[in-house]
Amino acid sequence: MTPNEHVAAVSAETARFVAAVRAADPAIPVPSCPGWTLADLVRHAGSVQRWFTVLLRRRIQAPPTSRDVELKLPERTQDYPAWLAESAAEADATFSDTDLDAPMWAWGADQHARFWVRRMLFETLVHRVDAELALGLQPELDPALAADGVDEFLTNLPYAAFFAPGTAELRGENRTIRFTRTDGDGDWLVRLRPDGFGLESGAAAAEPAADATVSATAADLLLLLYGRLDRSAAEVAVTGDEQLLELWFTNSAF
Fold this sequence. Notes:
By secondary structure, the protein is α+β, with helices and mostly antiparallel strands. It has two domains: 3-140, Up-down Bundle (Four Helix Bundle (Hemerythrin (Met), subunit A)), CATH 1.20.120; 146-251, SCP2 sterol-binding domain (Nonspecific Lipid-transfer Protein, Chain A, 2-Layer Sandwich), CATH 3.30.1050. It is built from seven helices and five strands; from the N terminus they run H-H-H-H-H-E-E-E-E-H-E-H. It has helices at residues 3-21, 38-58, 80-96, 114-134, 143-156, 218-225, 242-251, and strands at residues 175-181, 187-193, 196-199, 212-216, 237-240. A five-stranded mixed beta sheet has the order 3-2-1-4-5. Strand 2 (187-193) and strand 3 form a beta hairpin. Helix 1 (3-21) packs parallel to helix 4 (114-134) and helix 5 packs parallel to helix 6. The longest helix has 21 residues, at 38-58. The radius of gyration is 18 Å and the shape is globular.
């Protein structure tokens, strides 16, 4: 997907999120985010959008020293959905004024402004799914968008140790896990090395054998990687080294 497609998808995913929670009780618990209510979930999603928006406006070139931003949070939790919609509108306006290919500090692999748009997109999408699950709805994910989310997750996870400390345990003696999409093109090979882990590319990614393989639709792979689906689910096929998979899923929480 292109950065412009990511921009459009942020708006679309936020609109779906808002539509799901607009008339819901803010006190409903969110099982996929233990300890959170819908109000907590919406506040988190909007806060992240507003923080990323500030980073983009400032075109930061170094890690920020503070996450304090003006949230303009309403007093009533019933007004949070409208506030989330306003957060997305502010983000969209900033995207329009930003060269998304401009160099910019980011915590992940892509040191350009576009990183933050893509990251905002999947932060919003996953929490939209959380909201729908909490409300007993069946989330629907666009397959191409979900595949892009799988790629974004696996690309950036090696850089996430400062807020995902378990990733420091993802080490191995040249051990590989393949994630394969069953509903279209999509295949990702992760290699665990003694000094770290990461996605393979080129000829290395095409090697036929992996120590463990996880196969599912793009949507289910995305939900699996984010801990919203268990690998024992009927929708997921796993083969190979179970201990390696246990190591991965125990320590890859994002």
